[in-house]
Design brief:
Blueprint: H1 8-15, H2 20-27, H3 31-37, E1 45-50, H4 53-67, E2 73-78, H5 83-96, E3 104-109, H6 111-116, H7 126-146, E4 153-155, H8 163-174, H9 179-182, E5 185-187, H10 195-198, H11 208-221, E6 229-233, H12 239-247, E7 256-261, H13 270-279, E8 284-290, E9 309-315, H14 322-331, E10 338-347, H15 348-359, H16 366-373, E11 379-387, H17 388-398, E12 404-406, E13 412-413, H18 417-428, H19 446-466
Parallel strand pairs: 1-2, 2-3, 3-4, 4-5, 5-6, 6-7, 7-8, 8-9, 9-10, 10-11, 11-12, 11-13
Helix pairs in contact: 1-3, 2-3, 4-5, 5-7, 7-8, 8-11, 11-12, 12-13, 14-16, 16-17, 17-18
Length: 468
């Protein structure tokens, strides 16, 4: 018997002892060996990034048809502007309907499609594109949710124009008797397009559509009795929703709550967070504020003394109030782990001067204050034009506690970069250097700035999801 005539049963037994790379190499020997290699699971995870459809369509179809019905974890990141990409997502989800082993389903839009604007990228009427999105993405997702699987992690990009249709997805998930007890991680944060950063702050009004759906969202969330990780928009929070999360059927309470904010929220109070903490004592809150004036207005209600905040990001916010940041740091001096402040090519000192003009000089730079006061802090990321002498001060005050201390090289105001690296490395007790970025200290085109803001915000949301 020739080697290329070995029975498939024998080949499958051999493949079980081989690592994935060796299986792939063996599959290139002949058709018989290639046919057998796909009879046993390669991996329990399939992550398809469906962007360049024209050149990679055959690869996408092959992976979709061979693995979507087998894997335990399926992640689909696709170009939501390209109808062909949505067609392939639809086919993949259809294949997934017969996958009883599915435990994770993540649906995401590519950064490129968010940068273009999902429903504003071409001359085709937005209503037609929304209808096509519902047909090719929303409805197939509902079909997968209804199928016989035991989903534990579910992520779906919320799009404001389709909130009514997307609520049907969550309602279908919540109405499943099995998934009431299996879903542990639920990610429902809105994926922001560049349209958010084009608007002026006065245009960010609390959406009446969102408010009308808060009771529905609260009711649905309480049906997941073993929910541990939840990601939602801060603007849908109210004291009643926090109370619902606190007194729902969750057996041991939430362990992580990811919040994304683009504006202030007057419907949350310290009392609501106090009730939340009592019933979710081990929960860590991650708050990402992006693209707005949410830290400027006194009644922004983004964070309170009772908010169990461990991660805070302010991305491209205008005129951050130093007193608000210092209060946030003081409230969370025993639990804050991650502090990230980014607004490229904006001078941090302008925020300091503005705060001094408003409240006097009775305050300290929040970054320096956090390095000195917060003993649990392990990450500081700075994306402002920042004085090198203060960078050295932060490193010394942190006393070697910082695991990650990042600032782009282009944002550092210091003459001798080698001396800076030496001083910071000495203070941290390990080698340190600024991030080698491609930015320059002069204005870029408006589209480049907007895309970079959107990308940073997108990456922050994805980072929190991937920790589940």
């Amino acid at each position: 018997m020739d080697w290329n005539e070995l029975p498939s049963v024998v080949l499958q037994d051999i493949y079980k002892f081989l690592p994935i790379r060796d299986r792939l190499n063996a599959s290139s020997i002949c058709n018989n060996w290639r046919a057998s290699v796909f009879q046993i699971p390669f991996h329990d995870t399939l992550h398809l990034i469906i962007g360049n459809y024209e050149s990679d369509s055959s690869k996408y179809h092959f992976l979709s048809s061979n693995f979507a019905h087998k894997v335990s974890h399926l992640s689909l990141t696709f170009d939501a502007v390209n109808p062909n990409c949505m067609d392939l997502v639809c086919d993949t989800l259809t294949n997934c309907e017969r996958n009883s082993a599915l435990r994770t389903l993540q649906i995401r839009c590519t950064e490129e499609s968010l940068a273009k604007g999902i429903f504003n990228a071409s001359s085709i009427p937005a209503q037609l594109k929304q209808t096509y999105f519902v047909k090719k993405i929303v409805q197939p997702v509902i079909a997968v949710v209804r199928s016989r699987n035991l989903l534990e992690t579910f992520s779906f990009p919320w799009i404001e124009e389709l909130i009514q249709q997307q609520l049907q997805v969550i309602e279908t998930l919540a109405n499943s008797r099995l998934k009431n007890y299996t879903v542990r991680s639920l990610f429902l944060a809105t994926m922001r397009t560049t349209e958010l950063f084009k608007q002026s702050p006065t245009e960010w009004n609390h959406s009446k559509i969102v408010l009308s759906h808060i009771p529905v969202i609260a009711k649905l969330v309480t049906r997941f009795y073993r929910l541990q990780v939840l990601s939602i928009d801060h603007e849908v929070l109210t004291d009643s929703l926090l109370a619902t999360l606190s007194t729902g059927g969750q057996s041991s309470g939430l362990i992580r709550l990811n919040l994304v904010a683009v504006q202030g929220n007057p419907y949350v109070s310290n009392a609501g967070w106090t009730a939340f903490v009592i019933n979710n004592p081990n929960c860590k809150v991650r708050l990402t504020v992006m693209g707005g004036r949410a830290l400027v207005e006194q009644g922004s209600n983004l964070c309170f003394a009772s908010t169990p905040l461990t991660h805070f990001r302010a991305l491209y916010c205008q005129r951050i109030r130093m007193t608000m940041l210092n209060s946030l740091i003081l409230w969370n001096e025993n639990r804050l782990e991650h502090l990230e402040l980014v607004n490229e090519n904006h001078d941090w000192m302008e925020n300091i001067i503005q705060s001094a003009n408003e409240v006097g000089n009775d305050f300290i730079d929040p970054l320096i204050f956090a390095a000195w006061r917060v003993k649990s802090l392990h990450t500081i990321k700075i994306g402002y034009l920042y004085c090198g002498q203060d960078i050295i001060g932060i490193a010394r005050l942190a006393e070697g506690r910082l695991i990650r201390f990042e600032i782009p090289k282009s944002q550092i105001l210091y003459r001798n970069m080698d001396n800076l690296c030496s001083e910071v490395s000495k203070a941290l007790g390990k080698p340190w250097a600024p991030v080698d970025d491609q930015l320059e200290r002069f204005p870029r085109s408006r589209s480049q700035v907007l895309n970079n803001k959107m990308s940073s915000s997108y990456q922050a949301v994805i980072f929190d999801e991937n920790l589940s």
